[in-house]
Amino acid sequence: MIKRLVIIGVGLLGGSIGLTAKKKNVAEKVIGVGRNPKRLELARQKGAIDEFTTELATGLRDGEFIILCLPVERIIEFLPQVAEHSPASAIVTDVGSTKKTIVEEAEKLFGDGRATFIGSHPLAGSEKSGVEFSTSTLFKDATCFVTVNEMTPLDKLQQVVKFWRSLGARPFILRPDRHDYLVSMSSQGIHFAASALAKAFGSLGEDANLLRLIIGTGFKDTTRIAKGDEELWLEICRQNVQYIAEALDKFTNELSEIKEAIKNRDFDRVKTFLADARNLRQMLD
Amino acid sequence: MIKRLVIIGVGLLGGSIGLTAKKKNVAEKVIGVGRNPKRLELARQKGAIDEFTTELATGLRDGEFIILCLPVERIIEFLPQVAEHSPASAIVTDVGSTKKTIVEEAEKLFGDGRATFIGSHPLAGSEKSGVEFSTSTLFKDATCFVTVNEMTPLDKLQQVVKFWRSLGARPFILRPDRHDYLVSMSSQGIHFAASALAKAFGSLGEDANLLRLIIGTGFKDTTRIAKGDEELWLEICRQNVQYIAEALDKFTNELSEIKEAIKNRDFDRVKTFLADARNLRQMLD
After folding, report:
1. How many CB atoms lie within 10 A of CB B80?
2. Which residue range is the domain that position A34 belongs to?
3. Total domains present in chain B
4. What is the pTM of this model?
5. Does the ipTM surpass 0.85?
6. Would you call B248 an interface residue with chain A, using a CB distance cutoff of 8 Å?
7. Is A284 within 8 Å of B199 when comparing Cβ atoms?
8. Which of B174, B204, B227 represents a domain boundary (last residue)?
């Protein structure tokens, strides 16, 4: 059991971590750190945290397990202060959707008489944000990436893995660069692709009422993630430019090929394409 | 109340029409016509139809309202026989996902002492098929396109509109060509785009177990429709080549533009793109 779990940033993810940790007796005390006392009080009332402070140094005092639940660039911004004020015995992790830059930055600041930083990225969340949407089931059976490299102390890695497992998640250990490559295809590229579909459709020059009438659940599901907050996705994009651009290259190539086949009425190829896509998608269920 | 509602093809859509028509007292008797007596008996046991036959001419005898619930090319294939055997007073409609070719074919065969054909396309269904998945709520609040042109008798049009409304759907009257244009963007192009995403991801050369682990609900929702039956979508594609190719052009252009912005680290443009996409998608809810 963790004596003091410190959650920096108590939104959808941070709040859900607090709720789950308390429900599953993962932590004795959960401390929330944030900027807005009203939002923190809401988190306390919801049962996501026991106490809160707006002072980072105060929050980190005696912290045993510390988790940064902020947008990726604010994680990077906060790393120096967190490194400075965390107890040397503490484990620090995060929930950032990119890992290479964060882990590289952390390696300059942690270890060597300071706390240990190990990167995490739980595949949980939604297009909604805010502690009001947090639940104690958000991490149930969700994959959670945990990063490893030559610098990682394996006993601490084991504790981070155990932490996520105790919240119901399924830890998946990999290197930061490998993480950024994989999620560029499974998540970030998909976000830009869904956004492009929504934008192309919304920009048709048709009346909004008409557009609403002519879409079904297929369109809605396919483009739902485009409702995500642009600031969050912009930050993620800035931290993973190369791989996201490569992912979009793969998507546009695939789309251009099938477009050509359709234009040329090469229906054998169209059928093979549709069958391959169906098989590959079914395989993922 | 319709005396004899004839459903040709009792699958997901046909079965759901039967279930709903019986539940809402839209028809006195529902006749199912199909090829496979076992499947038809299943539909009867489920309450989707009252009687069935594998003989089209027998099924159409005394039919008042006749609806073809078949894949688009089989609709076209069956139109001559349906025109031949339907009572002259009958109304014939369909559920095909394309309308221009079907209506053009029907105009050669119906009217002029024969039954009246009016095209329909309810925006309902799923990647599943078969009468076992049919429900009496499938059409609730679903848009249903109903086609009109210079040849359409307005009293019969009104009856088709009333039919769909009585099943809980929201009829939307438009011209066949306009229909095919709109659904190429809202449905068919989206299907090919989701398929391209699933195919590009599934073809990464990574282990299937790994791919399953690294996808979240975002990926799954965005690519879910790629699980649809390739034969159905191939037929739809063959009937709407030009507009689907144009829709894919719009998507690839949008995707290429944002890819260039990302590569050039033009993050102002990336942010505007993401914000536009979010606004347009939210507008559609």
Report:
1. 13
2. 2-174
3. 2
4. 0.90
5. yes
6. yes
7. no
8. B174
